[in-house]
Amino acid sequence: MKNKYLLYSALFLLSMSSCEDKLDADRYFGDRMTIEKVFADRDYSERWLSDAYSHLIGVNADVSSKGFTMYCFADDMYFGDRDDKYKKWKNGEYDEGWEQGPWGECYTGIYQASVFIHNIDRNTKFTEEERADYKAQARFVRAYYYWLLLRKYGPIPIMPDEGMDFTQEYEDLAVARSSYDEVANFIASEMQIAAKDLPLERGPLAIARPTRGAALAARAKVLLYAASPINNPHPSDTEKFSDMVNFDGKHLIAQEYDETKWARAAAAALDVMELPGNQANGKRYDLYHLGRRTSGSVGYPVTIEPYKDGDFSEHTWPDGWQDIDPFESYRSLFDGEVSASDNYELIFTRGQNQSSEGVDIMVVHQLPTSATGWNTHGLTQKMCDAYYMNDGSDCPGKDLEIGGANGTVRETGFVDETNQENYPELGEHRIGVSLQYVQREPRFYASVAYNGSTWFLLNESNDANRNQQVFYYRGMGNGYNNNNAFWLRTGIGVKKFVHPYDTHENRDMGRIRRKAEPAIRYAEILLIYAEALNELDGSHNIESWDGSKTYTIKRDINEMKKGIRPIRCRAGIPDYTAAEYASKDLFREKIKRERMIELMGEGHRYYDLRRWKDAEKEESQPIYGCNTLMTEQYKDLFHIPVVVPSLPTNFSRKMYFWPISHSELKRNRLLTQNPGWTYND
Length: 681
Prior knowledge:
The protein is mainly alpha-helical.
């Protein structure tokens, strides 16, 4: 059995990328005891599994600040500090050696999980049920690492599960890239196997460990990507990545359209939706929602009555919004108000297990300078425009500057003493707010730090520093200043993830509410279901994950509504029109926009644009924002969008997939490079 350990070590050499110093468990156990002894001991076995988990955090986080992952920033969000890094990234000026940490971390985790899977059954210190659960956790973790690699690099090598003969010559220890479909199907299969032995729920102390729902939800994500245009081109598509091949000429990206991929993705989402549980609907998950607030306090305002649409406005949840607070329901999902264990929308999370660049640090970069925040994470004008008005219509002048004119122009004027009673959604501090920011949907006010918005900062020690109205005009403390590098380049900040009590006074992280990372939540599953159904022309019979039933999957508007109506209802805005449901093209555009809004800041947009093959258009458009060079004296000019020169945009074909490092190409002779990137010779 010592030889078997060496077999895995030889296999692992293929995927090492200057990460030898991170193999703490490998070094510890390899130096001090045989694999037999490790898996004869309960504590050592658990430590091995813990090490397999440990590579999920840091650079492999789904949601974090840019120090860990820049992929939470696309055409929606930007970071305004670390300018050189931002420009290098957005201009595609990075090279094959840049930001390669995830490759080594993922394959390290894959190795650790594989050893665990193949050896845990020998440990008699665990019950049979415990061994099955632990093995399923390791299988989930291993598959999730493959998912993270697939999402970033495209097709990648799948390491042989049985190991490799370590007596072979080094140059023979090579594994070619599997195709996108092969990797996606492998991940989906592994998640399906893991789901059988994972529990439906875990206690508060094990919230970061996967459940059955987490495995099935990750499976749905993977199948959605495999069905998307990046790997499922229509015959009319001119871009099929036909040059992404192995050395033997094997295509790594599908070259023909297959509608059944969409049906499989829809069925996988339905598997999650159908999981039994104790929610009011009898299911495991629901969209998180809170009751109406009839009396308010600072930071917790009275519920603003949503638009009277004659539909949602006439019913209680889940059929309407009569008895819920859309603003607070959405805000508290992310700001730490509700614990991960009490959040029945959260399907998979790393919990609060982040380090120096996690969600809490992301909030520090969002907070204004008046709260000792870095004041550098902001939103683009495009993202600001994406949010609906409270009646579900577009904001006047939406995307006017980038060619998306809908026949309207932007609002002018400001809230003043004569009209302030018309805009209770702005809260206590309304005077001076541009009319471009009034009467928007609740998610806007939970997410957007517009000019003149209120930051509550209730943990500030000085009463005078709480409940601030913050403006971003030039010369003001939070606006552009010649001597200050920390200001919002667009004059539009980010409120999402910020709790009413959050502040960074005296650089004290203890004044920021801890937040659980939202890696996968139920809203995403509903959106997957609706998106996948929309793409179907035919009817498909797909077995459920456990084979207990067969779904008939087709483009059924009533089924599509199951994915969209709950999200629109919780958001406090009307449902789509009959015409939008009826048209595949219109509905596709609505779904893309819904994902942009609902999932903003959660690490989706960057990859969504790539899987849809929309990045070439959307990420090449100039970034617009407020004219931050204007002082309050010229506030009309401040609110006329202008191109932000310090936020460059560029996109080339090679940026669809991240480059593979030269060191990995040299190490693995069967590994081919992604299109547009270079080899090391």
